[in-house]
Design brief:
2 copies of one chain form a homodimer. Chain A is mainly alpha-helical. Chain A has helices at residues 6-11, 16-28, 33-41, 52-64, 86-97, 109-115, 122-146, 156-184; strands at 30-31, 68-72, 80-84, 105-107. Chain A has a 3-stranded antiparallel sheet. Strand 4 of chain A pairs antiparallel with strand 4 (105-107) of chain B, so a sheet runs across the interface. The structure holds a DNA duplex (30 and 30 nucleotides).
DNA sequence: CCAAGAATAGTCCGAAACAGACCGTCTGCA
DNA sequence: TGCAGACGGTCTGTTTCGGACTATTCTTGG
């Protein structure tokens, strides 16, 4: 397999983190790992946590694959700045072009606890539901405050993901509040 | 710290998987790792994937901590059967009793792709939205078929988590269908 | 002006998680 | 009776994960 087709040859080794990095670098023109860390923290990181160590490890790896170009300060903080290459842009485009049918995961500790609520003491569910509702309400509020951002810092695609985040949190709040209400009326063991 | 308080001493080393195993064993009285694997596959595994290797590794670990009791066939398939101990029941109760405020994660590859959609070709988003909507509709249908199950195999707590699953998938379907509709009318780049 | 502390920027490591290959055992039924 | 498919389990090599740790630069108030 020749190296002149980065799209094909590298695709197998690219993970979600890879595309996250490629996408962020492409969007911003150039970025240091630290920049990536910040971008992630205020966007996708809300849904999907990426340990920052990964955001430092991934760019050099992508550079080796020829998808990014690296340039490093010699002195001071020795920042590493990355830019996307043509091959990188191609790999990103190819990924964006293939529609994804995978469903992802919903790793919610509260949900796991609820699944075994029947084994706990009577009051436990109420407390859980109440805590969860509050936590999700808080996050919903945060998300809503983001909607005020201007289009410059928030491309439409990002705004769309924010909308999903809002819809998700709203659903969670409704779910836990409904559960709480049913607990109050003794409905929860029936149905 | 004395060993006579398993609740306190073991709590630090217990992960979500631990409680999943404790809970399943408690619910069913006794279980082999293989049973756990099956239980997980048809319930929580839909939201949160646990590699089966973990469900084989965790029970012996919990047995060492005194939270499970192990008993093994000497011949044939050499099944390992686990039962919950008093200490295990206590640890589980303690976990259920503390309300959880963590929000969990939403690891959805489609969402990641959407976040960078602005960098792709015009038709890409439609294809993605269409594929995602279809996938979530399919899962929604599966979940709905589960609601027919009797209360024997489906305790109320599990039924509740199923309800959340349904609400979640419904929200996803609506989100992607709305996006698709907006694409058709050229709305997506504005807003 | 300068010291303290906050924010910036990056490295490193051990412990888990993870995916999946692989291997025996048993049951039903053709 | 033989074999397909479900059962039941072990193992291994990578990645991921979380967090501790270091060093540089900026800010601010005394």
């Amino acid at each position: 397999m020749a190296e002149d087709d980065a799209t094909t040859s590298a695709a197998g080794q690219l993970t979600p983190v890879s595309y996250l990095v490629l996408g962020l670098v492409a969007r911003h023109g150039a970025a240091t790992p630290y920049d990536l860390k910040s971008f992630v923290a205020q966007s996708i990181g809300n849904f999907w946590s990426f340990p920052h160590a990964q955001l430092y490890k991934e760019p050099p790896r992508l550079a080796e694959l020829g998808l990014l170009a690296e340039e490093r300060e010699e002195h001071g903080r020795r920042r590493r700045t990355f830019r996307i290459t043509e091959a990188g842009r191609a790999a990103l485009s190819a990924w964006l072009a293939e529609p994804d049918t995978s469903l992802g995961e919903l790793r919610a500790p509260g949900l796991l606890k609820l699944a075994f609520a029947e084994l706990g003491k009577p009051g436990d569910v109420e407390a859980l539901a109440s805590a969860q509702a509050a936590a999700h309400r808080a996050r919903l509020k945060t998300y809503r405050s983001y909607t005020a951002m201007s289009a410059d810092v928030m491309p439409w695609s990002l705004r769309r993901t924010l909308e999903l985040g809002i819809a998700y949190e709203q659903m969670q709040v409704e779910f836990w509040e409904r559960l709480l209400a049913d607990c109050a009326t003794g409905q929860h063991t029936r149905r």
